[in-house]
Amino acid sequence: MGDRPGPASGALEPKVRRDALVLGVAVGVFGMSFGVLATTAGLSVAQACVMSLLVFTGASQFAVVGILASGGSLASAFSSALLLAARNAAYGVALAPTFARRGSSEASHSSGRPGRGLGRRLLAAQLVIDETTAMATAQSERAAREQAFWITGIAVFVCWNVSTAVGAVAGDAIGDPQAFGLDAAFPAGYAALAVPHLASRAGRVAAASGVIIALVLVPIAPAGVPIVAAAAGVLPALFVPRKPTEGADA
Amino acid sequence: MSWPALLALGASAYALKALGLIVLGPRSAGGRLLQMAGLLPAALLPALVAVNAFAGDRRLVLDARAVGLAVALIAIWRRAPFVVVVVSAAAATALVRLVA
């Protein structure tokens, strides 16, 4: 995640493809870990695979199986998963201009293919996650953004689902995922994914607040609640004044 | 976990994505709500990192995962690729558990 795609140029696509492949392989580590953890938490192999296909949000899926495995209630697992998935709604808002048709929506109707734009967006919606948002918003032009979104989305979707199946099936054969340090791969990966969000002062305030809230609640709240409550970390960040130059070096 | 619960979760997760991309996105121009939504990952991702690295059974613990996270943070600081960050953290944690 260290090297961001540069400004748009003719040689953009190979770099996007390479970064997307790296992301896909890295996501595969998580997918395998998820498959193992899901079956450990009591899900069947089919349930683990269907969850990766339908939910397709790593943080939410890990939260569900993590809370169920630690004896948490289904309600706690759901609320935590959906709050973690709520950021995808925010990502969707940020990505909406990328999928806006040039010109008016009436134009697509008069072209004789009504709803084609909507169909694309309904398909794209399933791919709105951390990785696609990070890769797409790093591009400077709309067409490049959409291209980066689809390349990354397809790479991550394929890798996530294939590796989930492998992890779920091989889980028993692999044995304890902790022996391979797979539980540490999770916080490590999310630390890397969090870096772009720390570019602004408001982001850093939100991060520090979220971490403090979560760690304070770990000893006193049921599993899942600390992460849910960490969302309140955005509140103090709203009062951080923006520097006019902020974002230029991000 | 039951199948109806699993399918309901999948539908809810998709609804949230579609809500942003198809319903709210084309209609929102800016404002406080958008700013809050944009900051949500900044608050949630580091909290996830902290909980998954330091949470035990209703208590905070310092174990092999902390070593993995430390290695990951060094790798991130050195601008290592994502896959190096993830694999080195897992390897370091596995190594500590092997030795301990």
Structure notes:
The complex is a heterodimer of chains A (250) and B (100). Chain A has 250 residues and is mainly α. Chain A contains 12 helices and no strands. In chain A, helix 1 packs antiparallel against helix 2 and helix 1 crosses helix 9. With 100 residues, chain B is mainly α. Helix content of chain B is 77%, strand content 0%. Chain B has 4 helices and no strands. The longest helix of chain B has 23 residues. The mean pLDDT of chain B is 87. At the A-B interface, helix 1, helix 2, helix 3, helix 4 and helix 6 of A face helix 1, helix 2, helix 3 and helix 4 of B.
Summary, kept brief:
With 250 residues, chain A is mostly helical.
C-alpha geometry of chain B = extended
Overall body shape of chain A:
globular
Major beta-sheet overview of chain B = none
Number of individual domains of chain A: 2
Note the beta-strand portion of chain A: under 5%
Architecture blueprint of SSEs:
The complex is a heterodimer of chains A (250) and B (100).
Chain A: H1 12-40, H2 45-54, H3 58-69, H4 74-95, H5 105-110, H6 116-125, H7 130-137, H8 142-174, H9 182-194, H10 201-217, H11 225-229, H12 234-237
Helix pairs in contact in A: 1-2, 1-3, 1-8, 1-9, 2-8, 3-4, 4-7, 7-8
Chain B: H1 3-24, H2 32-54, H3 64-77, H4 82-99
